[in-house]
Predict the structure.
Amino acid sequence: MTVNATAPARPRRTRGIEAARARQALWLLLPTLIAIALVAGYPLYRTFYFSLFDANLTSPDQRTFIGLDNFWFTTEDGVAVGFLQDPKWWGAVKNTLLFTVVSVFLETVFGMIIALVVNSAFKGRGLLRTAMLVPWAIPTVVSAQMWAYLYNDSFGLIGRGLLGGQAVLANTDTAIWALIAVDVWKTTSFMALLILAGLQSLPGDMYEAADVDGASKWTQFWRLTLPLLRPALLVALVFRSLDALRVFDVMSVMLGNVNAASTSMTGYARQALIDNQLLGMGSAVSVAVFLIIMVIVVIYVTAFRVKFD
Amino acid sequence: MKKAVALFSLSAAILASSHAGAVTVTLACGDVGLELKMCKEGAARWAKKTGNTVKVFESPKLTNDRLGLYQQQLAAKSSDIDVYQLDVVWPGLLAQHFVDLTGKVPASEVNAHFKGIIDANTVNGKLVALPWFTDAGLLYYRTDLLKKYGFKAAPKTWTELALMAKKIQDGERKTNSAFSGFVWQGKNYEGLTCDAMEWLVSFGGGTIVDSTGKITINNAQAAKALDTAASWVKSISPAGVTTYDEEAARGIFQAGNAAFMRNWPYAWALGQGKDSKVAGKIGVAPLPSGGARNAATLGGWQLGVSSYSKNQDAAISLVRYLTSPEEQKIRAIQGTYNPTLPALYKDKDILAKNPFFGSLYSVFTSAVARPSAPTKLKYNQVSQAFSTAVSDVLNGKMKGQQAVAKLATDLARIKGRGW
């Protein structure tokens, strides 16, 4: 009897504890949620809001609602004024995607090689691990300016020395490759660091067993290291791809803001918003950048089943 | 104890007196060549005279970057900067953020400046800023090299310039592989708009958008002007000229690695400096003609007082001091900054230091304005579309005719429902 009486009470009590815990968690999370809403949510909302208006940066108070005209609109005279009708925007999208695909691919390959090297035991490994982070530690604005000097056609080590007076940065078609080189130089070490962290979580005895079974180093890499490294690698890839898609600083410093607008989506957004003072148009471009990045992330996460936990 | 009290009351008295009228005014100065140094010195002279303090805000070098920064400050109604240094094409863009100086500055003081520049600073009857120095594109050349290769005078036409530059370049390359004939501002930014305006007008190709707001760029003379400029790249100008701004061009010329340079007057004083390899060997002439006329783009900077300034009276006093004849004379002598006061072009001290001021007076007074007045708030977009089209021609992506046709379409897009 007594047993029967207490039995149903027990789960009710644990439910109460769980509910209390959930409530507690909510209260503890509340400050964070408010902070996120204020610093991320509100600007995002304002961006979406202004993308539907014809507004000027210098006087945002005088705005008129124009719906999606910032994206696509043709005037009575047949003039296309929406930014999606601007070939320059599509050039920026193309260049950004090219930049992302090539630089992230190269960074992953080189990062993997570097990580494998510094993961093996040898003298001076600690020093090497620190040294490889130097390019990553230099602020992008500084390293970009440094590379701009290297590429200079009249005194640069690369522009004058290696290429004999060619100006690679002069033309956006050649400049994009120069920019990819800079990004690979800078971010490979970051990729290597992420991969190295993944490598160090792999059990050493597994390789001993593989050695006993007579598997070659090559087989070990393809059959053991790579599959086990997959989760870490994918997270690293997502991070780098997102970074590369919203690249801005390298272009802005090395090419100047006008040419940056035809090489990166964010540069195009900045030009519309700041240089041209088109608050509405600039917001619309920012929304497009946001959507493009979101779609790519969703594809990434679902296609590769990336787990962030 | 007595001592301490005395000391305390003394310092309190000093504090009180300095608080009474003295304020701190922030002045945003440019940083091209000697600009920043001279700006600081001029501000310090005013501070000493009035007992106020001046803080100098260092702006970015490139004018486009500067505008972006200022617009953000002004849109946020920030009171951080009291006095802004404004490019001659900005008053139309920024007028609403500046104090109307009409009535606050005596009319005689305003009328002492070139009328054209005062007009450029007047938007809908509001005097947005006072002129500080004016600018016009000039052709710099190496007098020693011209003599060495048997030329008697500076080139009168672009064809002549190309021939001379080629001959000098071929000769000098034998001993100096980094030598080039002609350097200018080819980077895709406002500076390229200025350079290309000069080509356009000198060939009779119009001014992109005419004074009534009609887009006039799509014409054969404009196309010819751009094609001519494109022919210089890699022949008499280095391949990298399409990445040069004012300072990059000056660096090459001043290192003795160029025969001709297109630049603003400020480059003269620096070229005669101690660290210049070409001091004493520089000549200045009007830019060559393309068949129609000699043309120089009107540049120059003004000083305006922000409406959001908390110390407007002190700020206006600073602007009046910096634009005064005494201050403009110092700047003309030390930094070749062209005065905006006609009277100073007859000043003996200035002419002794800058002999070309007198002979090129007409270049400065007849300089061509960029189409900032008819295109109003959209000037910056027009200028960017133009410099991008020019850049495409210089980089060989397009021929002049194709570029001006495409530019006309782009400008129509920018114009949209109207300027």
